[in-house]
């Protein structure tokens, strides 16, 4: 067997894509290895969202160049491929800057990886960054079952929103929703392989509007032609053995009535939702082209909490967007305090070439952005710790999926996506893997919980 090493950067969609790359290459004789030095093919699956993303990729390529040269010195050929959003955005430039890279391909093209590898092995430099007419999901092989307890499933890809700071519409293309029947089939397959939790993925996952299965009964608001995300979730919840459903990343403008109602009606839909707001200022939101106001975002949050009182929200924030004033930032801080978040991710604005915001003349100085970010993160970290500490004394269902840091310890995830650790001892820890068990929470930390296995059913109300 040939050896494959994949390094994944960025979002959960890239994690999913990397797993499917391995599926595509398995029939060509590739199996995964844990080290690039042992690989016949190394793939960097890149992300363009974070600051200095391209520079990090080129730095890693420099290291791989040395590994490739060492392999050649021993008479062994190693191919290097770069996929994902950086490859999509900088394909020709990447071939110029790093001519030792054999394959450059965008996120819409990995279904053709086997052919790309074959071409590269013959000495042909491969560049494939077009948006094909057929969706990449149409020709993927059956997903391999790898003993996972949780799995990502891509249901929607691309974006039509064109936020002024974001490159996703240019690297992932227009919005596309997979047919519901394909998603259901993939979900059934992974559950049959031992998965009990799935996370539905999309750049704007709640904009999902996929073709309904042919078995759909007449009479729904969408007829027999399309399902929204709420309808899809309701169907997936009927799969035997599927205990938990999550979805990410959602856009506030696409939270429709049926999806909000599903949060209160579908037991398997976990009480945790990532709902990015980005800013608490209407003026900045308009400049970002986010398509909602602070009041509209707040209304969505309130409706979700009315539908499911124990729901916990997480969010994304950008500080220092071009033109952001002190009062705009104070509005963001005020929104965070009013709504309260269980977890949140916050970043300084960094320009992405080719986006409208990058061309604005009113860029905020770095020292101002840093000071604002520090203040916001202090608030958000305090909220996260408060949320975790409020869980002490509760009994929560935990899906155990990995060993903990210490001997005899196992870790898993709560319904709120918190890391939870228990230490039953060497003899019992491994027996917990893959099981969902009640845990009495005894400690709440900044980023995790600790507890002991419990005997009674979980409490219902959230913190």
Question: What does it look like?
Answer:
The protein has about 475 residues and is α/β, with parallel strands linked by helices. It has helices at about 10-25, 55-75, 85-90, 90-95, 115-120, 170, 180-190, 230-235, 255-265, 280-290, 295-305, 325-340, 365-390, 425-430; strands spanning about 1-10, 30, 40-45, 80-85, 105, 125-130, 150-155, 155, 175, 195-200, 210, 225-230, 245-250, 270-275, 310-320, 345-350, 395-405, 410-415, 420, 435-445, 450-455. The chain has a six-stranded parallel β-sheet, with helices on both faces. A five-stranded mixed beta barrel has the order 17-18-19-21-20. A three-stranded parallel β-sheet has the order 7-10-13, with helices on both faces.
Any key phrases for this structure?
disordered C terminus; 3 domains; 14 helices; 6-stranded parallel β-sheet; 463 residues; alpha/beta; Rossmann fold; 5-stranded mixed β-barrel; pyruvate-formate lyase- activating enzyme; OB fold (Dihydrolipoamide Acetyltransferase, E2P); single chain
């Amino acid at each position: 067997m040939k050896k494959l090493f994949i390094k994944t950067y960025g979002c959960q969609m890239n994690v999913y894509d990397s797993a499917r790359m391995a599926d595509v290459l398995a029939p060509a004789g590739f199996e995964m290895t844990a080290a690039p030095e042992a690989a016949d093919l190394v793939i960097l699956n890149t992300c363009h969202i974070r600051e200095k993303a391209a520079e990090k990729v080129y730095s890693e390529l420099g290291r791989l160049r040395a590994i490739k040269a060492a392999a050649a010195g021993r008479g062994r050929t190693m191919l290097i491929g770069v996929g994902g959003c950086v490859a999509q955005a900088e394909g020709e430039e990447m071939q110029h800057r790093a001519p030792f890279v054999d394959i450059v391909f965008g996120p819409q093209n990995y279904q053709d990886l086997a052919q790309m590898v074959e071409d590269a092995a013959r000495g042909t430099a491969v560049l494939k960054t077009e948006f094909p007419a057929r969706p990449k999901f149409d020709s993927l092989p059956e997903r391999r079952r790898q003993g996972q307890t949780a799995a990502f499933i891509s249901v929607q890809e691309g974006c039509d929103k064109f936020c002024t700071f974001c490159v996703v519409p240019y690297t992932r293309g227009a919005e596309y929703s997979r047919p519901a029947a394909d998603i259901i089939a993939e979900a059934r397959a992974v559950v049959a392989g031992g998965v009990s939790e799935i996370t539905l993925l999309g750049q704007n996952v709640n904009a999902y509007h996929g073709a309904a299965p042919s078995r759909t009964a007449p009479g729904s608001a969408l007829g027999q032609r399309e399902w929204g995300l709420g309808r899809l979730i309701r169907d997936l919840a009927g799969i035997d053995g599927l205990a938990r459903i999550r979805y990410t990343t959602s856009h506030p403008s696409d939270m429709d009535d049926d999806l909000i109602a599903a949060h209160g009606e579908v037991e398997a839909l976990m009480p945790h939702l990532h709902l990015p707001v980005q800013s608490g200022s209407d003026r900045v939101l308009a400049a970002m082209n986010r398509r909602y106001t602070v009041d509209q975002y707040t209304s969505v949050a309130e409706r979700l909490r009315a539908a499911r009182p124990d729901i916990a929200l997480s969010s994304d924030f950008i500080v220092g967007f071009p033109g952001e004033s002190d009062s705009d930032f104070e509005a963001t801080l005020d929104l965070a305090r009013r709504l309260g978040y269980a977890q949140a991710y916050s970043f300084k604005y960094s320009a992405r070439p080719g986006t409208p915001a990058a061309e604005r003349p009113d860029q905020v100085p770095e020292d101002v952005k840093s000071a604002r970010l520090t203040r916001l993160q202090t608030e958000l970290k305090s909220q996260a710790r408060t949320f975790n500490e409020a869980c002490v004394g509760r009994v929560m269902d935990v899906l155990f999926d990995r060993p903990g840091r210490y001997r005899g310890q196992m870790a898993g995830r709560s319904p709120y996506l918190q890391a939870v650790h228990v230490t039953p001892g060497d003899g019992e820890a491994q027996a917990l893997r893959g099981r969902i068990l009640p845990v009495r929470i005894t400690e709440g930390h900044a980023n995790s919980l600790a507890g002991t296995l419990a005997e009674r059913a979980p409490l219902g109300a959230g913190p």
